[in-house]
Design brief:
The chain is an alpha+beta fold. It contains three helices and five strands, in the order ααβββαββ. It has a single domain, classed as OB fold (Dihydrolipoamide Acetyltransferase, E2P).
């Protein structure tokens, strides 16, 4: 009986992993609306964000996480981002959801 339950949960897990950029965006939006004393920018943990580095119309580099929806985040380290323009990357950093900005720690090719 437990084995059958495990197999039923596997597609949900795979689907959840496939939708992780959407989950991150939705989670970040709800997190920004819930003020708590514990969540200060210096206390946030770094996370990985995967997408493509693009140059926005305003000239700033951003991480495009969902091409169809046009969802992305601006990057605070423009010099690092410029080196990866047009490439698929993994950005390590902390999210400032209120400003749609990632405070970059590192950028690596995906």
């Amino acid at each position: 009986m437990k084995r059958g339950t495990l197999w039923l949960g596997l597609p949900a897990l795979v689907l959840g992993v496939g939708l992780s950029p959407f989950i991150l965006t939705a989670h970040a939006q709800t997190q920004g609306k819930q003020p708590t004393a514990q969540q200060e920018p210096s206390q946030q943990q770094s996370k990985a964000f995967v997408g493509q580095i693009v140059k926005a119309k305003n000239g700033q580099y951003a991480l495009l996480v969902d091409k169809q929806a046009g969802t992305g985040f601006f990057l605070d380290d423009q010099a690092k981002a410029q080196k990866f323009e047009g490439q698929n990357v993994k950005v390590i950093g902390t999210l400032d959801a209120a400003n749609h900005l990632i405070h970059v720690s590192d950028i690596q090719p995906a």
